[in-house]
Amino acid sequence: MSDFELEALKLKKLRELQRRIANQKSQQTRENPFKIVENILVGRGKEVLEAAYNQFPEVAKAVVEYLARLIKDGKLRGELTGEELYAIFRTLGLNVKLETKIVFKEHGKVKSLIEKLKED
Question: What's the chain's average pLDDT?
Answer without folding.
Answer: 86
